[in-house]
Amino acid sequence: MLGKSDQAALGEPISQPGLADTNCGRLPTTTVATLSQMVPLNSQNNVDAALAMIAGQAVDTTGSILDLGGIGQAAPPSATLAIPSARQPVSKSGDATGLTCSTIDVVNALIQVTYSTQCQGGTSFKVNFDNQVSILGNQFSGSGDSGSLIITSDKAQPVALLYAGSDTGTVGNPIQAVLGALKDPNTGEVPRIVGGTDHSVPCPATTSQSQVSTIGPQDKTGLPQSEISRATLARNHRMFELMQDSAVDTVDVGRSADNPDESAIVVTLRGQTSLPIPAQVDGVRTRIAQSGEFNALHAQARQVEALSPISETEIARARSAKQQHAEELMTNSAIIGVGVGASNDSPGESAIVVFVEKGKSVAVPAVIDGVRTRVITTDPFRTFNWGKSTVKACSRR
Description:
Elements: E1 13-16, E2 30-38, E3 50-54, E4 89-94, E5 98-118, E6 121-136, E7 149-152, E8 158-165, E9 169-174, H1 175-181, H2 225-242, E10 248-255, E11 263-269, E12 280-281, E13 284-290, H3 292-307, H4 312-330, E14 335-342, E15 350-357, E16 367-368, E17 371-378, E18 381-382
Parallel strand pairs: 5-18, 11-13, 15-17
Antiparallel strand pairs: 1-2, 2-3, 4-5, 4-7, 5-6, 5-14, 6-9, 7-8, 8-9, 10-11, 12-13, 14-15, 16-17
């Protein structure tokens, strides 16, 4: 990255290929720009971004990005900016992994990111950034993609700037925050994205990733007997009450899709309930499923619901709860992120998404201020050595 994890100085040369491609600068490079502005890494700024002054004609000033017009075909992004939203399909073309596509999984996230003071060495330090965007899946990016522009797949509108990742996802700064942080300190002028008209991005089918849970409602494989017993007790205690709604077909014990390490009371519906199914019953998560008959009649409508953005009302409800509790949750060293996304247990509902570091244990409440929680177990988010390894995109030029 241009700012070298806050270790760079203004006026330093920016080389191509970058450090990640040249064994930390040990191979020949060409200077294409000089560092002209960077935002200090701290929790107040909430962005990791910098600007460089190009050297002569060393950089294409049209804004074209490789593969945005098709594999091997360069095209500029749209000049219109987009606001990040949960379940929004997005794309990026990066040096390490080329053109990839996925969806925004989490918005308004407070994320802990690990940095290193040197390329392949030095000491590490951590910074918490708020209001971040998390992209679904470990195939979207890899180390070396930092600085890639994340755009909407349908219109190529810039939505975020990629700077970190983990084995479960990618983290970006919302583009409006980036541009605002990089305004000229003397004139107040805000930089703009060099772009053109809206256009779709030809996403490779192999990189698109769905957000629909693949965990079957009745799949209890690997769950501790204590979890199954806990849910069974709650189910037996509350089944009669739940079955009073004529839309409820069955009440069973299964696995939560919001926290696969926990059991759930699986409520199968054959129609629209008269009252919402509670998010938890006697401390056990509930998971909403559909009966075969209802499933056949409404399959297309529910598929659209499963992939559609969550309503702003739902997002606002979760955002309010996240803002109230994120910092408190992050005081637990096992929790490295808290944001807002969609519930996998209840289609159409929002959730407070809690990122838990692998190898660490923490009891995440099933519900916070009436909002479901969803747990993602991940290794730390970092700006180096993450993601898939693949052929460099620039090698196709």
